[in-house]
Every structure is written in C-alpha cells, then in structure tokens.
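Quick illustration for those who missed Monday's session on complexes.
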Amino acid sequence: LMVENQLRRAIERKEFQLYYQPQIELASGALVGCEALIRWMHPERGMVPPDRFIPVAEDSGLIVRIGEWALIEACRQNKAWQEQGLPAIPVAVNLSPAQFSSSITATVEIALMETGLSARHLELEVTEGVVMRDAIEVIDTLRELKRMGVRLSIDDFGTGYSSLSYLRRFPIDKLKVDRSFVDEIGADVDDEAIASAIIDLAHSLRLKVIAEGVETADQARFLLQRGCDQIQGFLVSRPLSAGAMAEFLQTWR
Ligand code: G
Ligand code: G
Ligand code: MN
Ligand code: NA
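Prediction with manganese (II) ion bound:
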C-alpha cells in the first residue's frame, strides 16, 4: 500500500522517465528500432527498476495511467528526435494486459495525433498472456491497431502458454525471444533448441524475430547462424537515457 501511494504521488510529480534500448539488424548492424523502458526516479530511493513497481501498478490499476504516460512520452520523444534530423526508427512501447481493453486504440490514436508521430514509427509490445486471453476481442483490437499502421510484437515469447493456431490468426509483425533462452545459448542445448524453434516458427509465419538480452558475441553468432533477424541487449547497448539515445542515433553507423 505504501508503494501504491508513492506511485500515485509519482504520477503527479512526474517522477517517471523512459530509457531506450537500441535494436539492431543482426546481418547488417543497422539500427532498426528501440524499446522504451520505464524507470521511476524516486526522490529518496533513486532509480527504481520496473520489476519493483510495475507489478504494484498492475494490481492497483495505476498501470493504465502510467502506461498512457509512457506511450505519449515515447511518441513525443521519437518525434522530437526526428525533428532534430536524427534517423527515423520505430519506438516500441510495452503494454500491460490491463491496458489492453478496446480503449487502447483510442489512446494510441490520441498519442499519435497529439505528438504528430506517424503510426509506422510506433510499435506495441504485448505479452503472450494478452494475446491468448480473449481471442475474438483481442484479434479485433489488434486488427484495428494494424489498420492504423502501428507495428505489433509479442514480448517474452516462449514463456507463456501459446496456442500456435491462435498465433497464426493474430496480425503480429514480430516475436521477441525471451532473454531466458538467450542467456543459456552456449550452455544449455535445450534452450538453444527453443531459441532456434522460435526463430523458425516466426519465419514460417512470415514474422520477424528479435532476440532479447544478447550479451555476448558468441550468442550473437549463434543467433545469426540460426537466421535470427534482430538483437537487443547489453552487447549492443544498455538501455539509454533520452540524451544518450540521441547520441547513439547520431553516431551508430
Ligand atoms: O528495463 P528493465 O529490463 O528493468 O524492464 C523490466 C521489465 O519491465 C521489462 O521486461 C518490461 O516488460 C517492463 N517494462 C518496462 N517499461 C515498461 C512500461 O512502460 N510499461 C510496462 N507495462 N512494462 C514495462
Ligand atoms: O520488456 P522486457 O522485460 O523484455 O525488457 C527488457 C529488460 O531486460 C529491461 O529491463 C532491460 O534493462 C533488460 N535487459 C536488456 N538487455 C539486457 C541484457 O543484455 N542482459 C540482461 N541481463 N538484461 C537486459
Ligand atoms: Mn519488452
Ligand atoms: Na521481454
């Protein structure tokens, strides 16, 4: 309850910040996107990572307002970078299941309209749980978002319960291989097999695939050999403040 009250206050006091983690095309090294990751700049506790407060925000329903803020802020920042002449790339925003009601389409529309960001420069990350929850309604909402021109990806893929037959019917652009499988590349043949299977599954459904949490050149080499399209992780860059991300946009070849 204490954290919940502090979170309420944090919204009013604008204590949240977005960090951005670059996403790279594996074969070419080209910068193809970035993921917005929220941080709570607590006045006494310093920077609080999302796993310490997102669950509380979800349980209390505060995630809807925090998530709306993150969506608009990511769109605003991306548009600002473009207006500074920096390369135009999509920004990916994480959506919590609680945000994923039918009103999410209106929220996204407002964010794009208010910031002037074009829909193709916004990607939304949903989890397997959301996609499987309420198939018919979710498909309608995802289709509406696709009609608007927004990109869609499934986050933490492989950790939830996936129905592959559902997956085929969702208008998804990209699967994100969960970090837990990438971690074990070079160490656990079963996790290597899962990572490879997700890459093949994505491609057979004509989806892009990105591996998260790539930390070593050996992991990147393995993923390249298996045909993985993109990577994100400490090997390329930690999540960066907006200022540091602007510099990354400017200097990355
Ligand atoms: O940046 P970090 O690795 O600590 O993020 C941990 C998790 O918090 C990520 O897996 C991500 O899904 C989640 N997260 C980060 N930013 C947001 C956000 O803006 N909204 C939601 N719902 N989750 C986020
Ligand atoms: O949305 P998601 O939970 O997947 O967000 C990615 C999380 O993983 C962020 O909190 C980010 O800070 C973290 N992260 C990103 N790259 C790496 C990495 O290479 N290694 C580890 N251990 N964590 C990472
Ligand atoms: Mn994510
Ligand atoms: Na993830």
